[in-house]
Amino acid sequence: MVLWSARRGSRETPRLRPRVAPTDLARVDFTELVPEPVAFLGQAAYIQLEAFENLARAVATAPSIDSKEGLSAAAGVALRKHHALIAELRREGVEPVEVMAPFAPATDRFREATAGADWYELLLGIHVTTGMLDDFFARLAAGLPHEVGDRVRRILDEQGAAEVLQRELGRAIAEQRGLADRLALWGRSLVGDTLLIARSALRGAEPSGRFDEDVEPVFTELIADHTRRMDALGLTA
Amino acid sequence: MVLWSARRGSRETPRLRPRVAPTDLARVDFTELVPEPVAFLGQAAYIQLEAFENLARAVATAPSIDSKEGLSAAAGVALRKHHALIAELRREGVEPVEVMAPFAPATDRFREATAGADWYELLLGIHVTTGMLDDFFARLAAGLPHEVGDRVRRILDEQGAAEVLQRELGRAIAEQRGLADRLALWGRSLVGDTLLIARSALRGAEPSGRFDEDVEPVFTELIADHTRRMDALGLTA
To answer: Which positions fall inside the Ferritin-like domain (chains A, B) (predicted)?
Structure first.
């Protein structure tokens, strides 16, 4: 369970409940959110492990050695992110497996739900979900204690995977008639599940409240990035 | 196709055909074999990629997060070996995908044949085949030009995967009645396929000759290592 507080609020009043009247409440953005480091790292680490699993599945089912080779590099990036986050958990003095465990069921379901019906949907699923979530967690890392936040941002900023996925998808879309329409639809359907995972990182097990409205700007940025990512593939988001 | 020659033979006469009468011919050992660097690196790199695929499959199907986490580290080791060998191919000025391609069909079949019927057989399949082949290619690297040979040995010597596999297998064997017998049988059945891959590295597409007899000591060492590996698990080789 990730506990959050608004940075400007009292640390004794967790989450987004500043003691001001609702009408005075500005909407929060990324810089105002304060994640609980251990839970943040645990969820981020497990998400990278699941991204790795989908990338490894893409390697195993790639239609050519060339694609296999490119995707193996992308899988390596996800795995390095995972292991670097695990190292951060150990630095916090906790047992990574125990910290990750509560996030496993929802993340496993998420991975299955975004793996798609064939190799192309699998690739777009990875591209869209890791694109949004890496960015999301990297921005939220701004609210972690200074040093760990910097390290986490550097970990999550490692490039290399998106380029491979974009190249493979771009090539397939150019070659296969009808694939663009199918993938555009699929891309749109991925957004909802991905935002739910992002929101779970913010809310933990909290019941729904005016929270959704407060953090809306956070999600607006994620969706804008998603649109740019789809545009780059010539797909309507 | 990997071309080999006996180190002591003329370089104009490739493979194991020294110009001496058969009766004078001592049996070759690892130090006398001279692999053709590009083909050697291509086959070794592709074998690591396939080992990675099986490890990633083991990660995806692991029965617990703890096992998943351990195996993800082992998958990372195989992936690093693969990418380091790819870097060596680039250093040789060749396109890695083209060099690996001829080895893909046999290696793909080998991976499938050694993946087993369940997670435990998959783990033993990886443990036995990567154990034998990493060792085999590391020893043969002694015949490569000095610098590249040293680098390749260091690449292949990276530890970490075998320990994880041994721990997981040891735990399962201790817990599950009857598993030891089944895995002992499975381990024995893996040796033949693995030796065929090793032999293909020595022989390329060469027709069978007195070659088998000459390189027998090479395989004797591999089999002795295999026996030690099975012993460590309490399995009869």
So the answer is: 38-197
Instruction: Give the residues across from B92 on adjacent strands.
Output: none
Q: Provide the sign of the torsion angle of the four alpha carbons A189, A191, A197, A200, taken in this order.
A: negative
| Cross-chain CB nearest to A53 (options B59, B69, B101) | B59
Put simply, whether A106 touches B (Cβ < 8 Å) is no
Which residue on chain B is closest to A66 by alpha carbon?
B97
CA B150: distance to chain centroid?
18
For residue A63, what is the DSSP state? S
pLDDT digits (tens, 9 = 90+) for A80-136: 999 999 999 999 999 999 999 999 999 999 999 999 999 999 999 999 999 999 999
Question: Nearest Cβ partner of B72 from A59, A68, A79?
Answer: A79
pLDDT digits (tens, 9 = 90+) for A54-81: 999 999 999 999 999 999 999 999 999 9
The CATH classification of domain A33-232, taken from the options 1.10.630.10, 1.20.1260.10, 3.40.50.360, 3.30.1370.10: 1.20.1260.10
Cα dihedral across residues A3, A50, A135, A186: positive or negative: negative
Helices B119-140 and B146-156, packing angle to 10 deg: 160
With contacts defined as CB-CB under 8 Å, which chain A residues touch B79? Answer: 72, 75-76, 79
- CATH number for domain B32-232, candidates 3.40.30.10, 3.40.190.100, 1.20.1260.10, 3.40.1280.10: 1.20.1260.10
Q: Which residues pair with A33 in a beta bridge?
A: A6
**In the numeric block, which tokens belong to residue A46?**
């497990």
